[in-house]
């Protein structure tokens, strides 16, 4: 049975002012790391503002969403594929692969986003619709940030083509401009459409614009100076936009909706050949110009601004604080690390930033009843602390079924985690024993190489045999092989079962020899000798002599030794008269059979010698 999804527990933590663009703050699978971020932020901000807030810090709820689980599963495959890229590949080839992998990650995000949107629209429950709507908003922000990081860091577009990439970035996340243009062009009379004059503001591409830009710019400025379009207000506004007039762009900022859309539009019409190193200046000024003087930048604004400033570590830090789990920062950081963009940033406690975030993300996955299997691969690709983390986390996986236990065991075996293998086997052996499943318990104890527990279970098998007269789990006992050497009692159990097989196959000579060796070699426990001697009775009563004279003498010696022990123990623990009568009857029958067999054996051996 799979573990049932449950509501995460709620804890409380101190944190600074909350991000307003995301629906939850620090809903992390690991309570320790958000606390670190909270303390760091509190210390850094308290000096300036002296103000703090109490916010809920909860475990990651996203892993319990069926749709978002697809995001975790699909991105896991991309992550594993990324780790296989060879280091010796030429830089150009690797760059193309990294860009392709980045787009794969984004396609997975977008696919989940679209599915969440469909569910949010189709559901009739307001709370569910709100929940999915919030998740869509978060994924939109994640995809926006990832796409920008892809343009600036991974693809590293140079001046000239940089603006083209930024135009595609804005167009992808501001699709209403393309939709308006398509709607206007497909109408019967485009010039009379209500949105006709709104469309040209952001619908130029770099390729068609760059060829004519300088000529256009001079020509547009001349037309404005000559008041050539003074009679048509719309044309004059378009000319001012083409000339890159900031006041005109700001007057129509409602058509742009975001400061980064305003930034790209401004660059397109005033500085189309912007260099990457100049972006931060334009980004900061556009943010200041676009926002109201009373407005405070939201966390998303700060993250994008840090990206335009090429401050990768600030982007990762702000995303870690603002987003609701480690998925985004872990995968983005891993990709950036493969691009050799994070080599200079190591943490003080030994692990680099990539490994630190992957460890936190994977630790969160281990709290889920099925996603924990994905986490194993993430730990495998954390060379410094991954193995240690896996050893600690694997022991916390609930072993609900034997199938799941075998799966965990296989993972541990493949990674030479011998202590964890023994621990899992002992747990399963104890559980099976409590449920009176002796065969399963013995199998697990053998895998654990636990001699003491194997002895205990072997004793239970022998007790059951004495009570019922038959063995359970014969297939297991018959195929013990070298495993029976794990303990003396297990060896006896295997050999005693072998005696029964020989007797069943009417191989009486071999059976007699094995039975005698179990007692004379002291393999059999003394408490079981009476059972063995009783098993010898049918062999002693055979028409053909099975036990030789020497063997019969040894059986007699064992019987007398057992009798003396029984007499000694009877003094300390008195038995009922019925039990004593049964034992005396057994002993008398054995003595009679042994005496008769000895006589027959002597006659037979003497006749042969003559």
UniProtKB/TrEMBL annotation:
Question: What is stated as this protein's family in its record?
Answer: Belongs to the nucleoporin Nup85 family.
* One Pfam entry name: Nucleopor_Nup85
Protein name listed in UniProt: Nuclear pore complex protein Nup85
Provide the function of this protein. Answer: Functions as a component of the nuclear pore complex (NPC).
**GO CC annotation: what is one?**
nuclear pore outer ring
Q: Where in the cell is it found?
A: Nucleus, Nuclear pore complex
What InterPro entries does this protein map onto? Nucleoporin_Nup85
Q: Which keywords accompany this UniProt record?
A: Membrane, mRNA transport, Nuclear pore complex, Nucleus, Protein transport, Translocation, Transport
What PANTHER family does the record point to? FROUNT PROTEIN-RELATED, NUCLEAR PORE COMPLEX PROTEIN NUP85
**Domain of life of the source:** Eukaryota
Q: Molecular function terms in GO for this entry?
A: structural constituent of nuclear pore
> Where is this chain primarily localised?
nucleus
The answer to whether UniProt assigns keyword Transport to this entry is: yes
Question: What GO biological process terms does the UniProt entry carry, in alphabetical order?
Answer: mRNA export from nucleus; positive regulation of DNA-templated transcription; protein import into nucleus
Subunit structure as annotated in this protein's UniProt entry:
Component of the nuclear pore complex (NPC).
């Amino acid at each position: 049975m799979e573990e049932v999804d449950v509501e995460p527990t709620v804890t409380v933590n101190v944190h600074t002012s909350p991000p307003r663009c995301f629906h939850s703050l620090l809903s992390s699978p690991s309570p320790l790391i958000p606390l670190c971020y909270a303390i760091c932020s509190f210390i850094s901000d308290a000096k300036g503002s002296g103000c703090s807030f109490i916010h809920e810090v909860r475990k990651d709820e996203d892993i319990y969403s069926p749709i978002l689980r697809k995001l975790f599963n699909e991105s896991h495959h991309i992550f594993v594929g990324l780790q296989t890229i060879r280091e010796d590949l030429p830089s150009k080839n690797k760059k193309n692969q990294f860009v392709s992998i980045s787009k794969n990650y984004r396609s997975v995000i977008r696919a989940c986003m679209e599915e969440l949107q469909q569910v949010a629209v189709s559901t009739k429950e307001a709370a569910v619709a709100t929940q999915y709507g919030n998740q869509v908003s978060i994924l939109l922000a994640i995809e926006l940030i990832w796409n920008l990081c892809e343009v600036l860091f991974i693809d590293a577009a140079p001046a000239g083509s940089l603006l083209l990439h930024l135009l595609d970035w804005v167009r992808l996340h501001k699709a209403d401009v393309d939709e308006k243009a398509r709607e206007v062009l497909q109408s019967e009379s485009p010039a009379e459409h209500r949105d006709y004059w709104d469309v040209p503001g952001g619908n130029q591409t770099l390729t068609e614009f760059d060829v004519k830009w300088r000529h256009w710019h001079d020509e547009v400025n001349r037309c404005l100076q000559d008041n050539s379009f003074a009679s048509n207000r719309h044309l004059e506004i378009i000319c001012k936009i083409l000339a890159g007039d900031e006041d005109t762009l700001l007057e129509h900022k409602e058509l742009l909706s975001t400061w980064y859309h305003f930034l790209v539009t401004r660059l397109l019409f005033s500085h189309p050949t912007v260099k990457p190193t100049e972006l931060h200046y334009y980004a900061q000024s556009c943010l200041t110009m676009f926002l109201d003087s009373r407005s405070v930048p939201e966390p998303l604004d700060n993250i994008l601004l840090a990206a335009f400033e090429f401050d990768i570590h600030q982007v990762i830090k702000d995303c870690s604080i603002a987003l609701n789990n480690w998925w985004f920062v872990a995968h983005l950081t891993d990709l950036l690390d493969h691009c050799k963009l994070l080599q200079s940033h190591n943490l003080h406690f030994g692990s680099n930033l990539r490994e630190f975030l992957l460890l936190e993300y994977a630790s969160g996955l281990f709290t889920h009843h099925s996603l924990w299997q994905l986490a194993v691969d993430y730990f495998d690709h954390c060379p410094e602390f991954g193995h240690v983390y896996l050893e600690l986390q694997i022991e916390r996986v609930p072993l609900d079924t034997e199938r799941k236990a075998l799966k965990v065991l296989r993972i541990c075996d493949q990674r030479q985690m011998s202590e964890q293998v023994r621990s899992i086997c002992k747990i399963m052996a104890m559980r099976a024993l409590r449920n009176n499943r002796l065969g399963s318990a013995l199998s697990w104890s053998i895998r654990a190489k636990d001699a003491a527990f194997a002895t205990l279970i072997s004793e239970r098998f022998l007790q059951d045999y004495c009570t019922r007269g038959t063995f359970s789990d014969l297939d297991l006992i018959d195929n013990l092989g070298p495993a029976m050497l794990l303990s003396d009692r297990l060896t006896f159990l295997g050999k005693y079962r072998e005696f029964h097989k020989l007797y069943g196959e009417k191989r009486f000579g071999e059976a007699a020899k094995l039975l005698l060796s179990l007692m004379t070699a002291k393999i059999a426990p003394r408490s079981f000798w009476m059972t063995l001697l009783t098993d010898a009775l049918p062999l002693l009563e055979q028409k053909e002599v099975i036990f030789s004279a020497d063997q019969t003498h040894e059986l007699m010696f064992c019987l007398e030794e057992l009798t003396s022990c029984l007499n000694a123990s009877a003094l300390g623990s008195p038995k009922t008269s019925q039990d004593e009568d049964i034992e005396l009857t057994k002993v008398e029958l054995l003595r009679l059979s042994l005496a008769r067999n000895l006589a027959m054996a002597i006659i037979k051996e003497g006749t042969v010698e003559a």
